Here is the input.
Amino acid sequence: MEGVKLSKRPRLKNPYLVCAWPGMGEVAFKAATYLIEQLKAEEFAEIPPEDFFYSTGSIVQEGILKTPEFPYSKFYYWKNKTGENDLIIFISNAQPDLAKADEYCKRIIYIAKGFKVKTIISFAAMPQAIDYTQQPRVWFTATSKEIINILTKYNFQLLLEGQISGMNGLFLGMAKREGFNGFCLLGEIPLYTIQIENPKASYAVLDALARLLKIQIDFNNLIGQAHGMEGEINKLLDYLKLGVPPGPIGEEDIERIKKSLTQLTKLPLSVKENIERLFMQANADISKAKELKAELDKWSVYKEYEDRFLDLFKKKKDKDN
Here is the structure.
């Protein structure tokens, strides 16, 4: 298929396809990256980025301006020597322009069909009113009742209603339209830490996957990262909670902490790029401002972009006059 570059064509047995993009808490991206590293999966194909990504700025390191690099969208494979199913792992380090998501998904599906994949798996984050020190539960949603019945036996929490935003949710829905079975594993993250990498949640979903597929993964490094991050967050929360009465964190406290964390953390690059894309669209069509506002609210960064957002309406008023 035009638009997919194959560097080799491995012979795989009944492979599952695991897909991941950056998102809240970097849960999906971290889990898939760690999976590739631990299994020593080999790259075999990629989707050229030019049709789906655009540069939004240049990186400066040690005072030197670097040429902008496009995000990658790569396929890896792993042969399971002890089980019945090999793995294909697709990972991208940025969300594509969702206006072109249909064509982007077709290229992934082309690989899935070419290797006779029957089941597709994705990861995502599940923001909840939990404390960072709690062990995150794993939630799930699936493309059929049959898969739901299987996963329920593992004591995962079924997501009855809601939405999985971005490619981690969108692709699975498009794959179902093409006749694939699949499910999404969601790791819980605290509501006030959606912008901070959460290796504990990545570990939770990856451990769930390992149990489901009966594969062996060394989690020591990921657990160590989780402990390290937990210690840093605890220090930050102790500082931010000064003046908050002892006891459970209430909704007002959560909102205050979220706003404070927003000022102290960085948005994932993919989210920044998506916000810039939405600003461009809203500048051309003010009806897109609603989608932009929803994205800013989701990441608790409206205040940071408020002046630019309001300028969209000022420009429209000036045009009308």
About this structure: The first helix runs from residue 27 to 39.
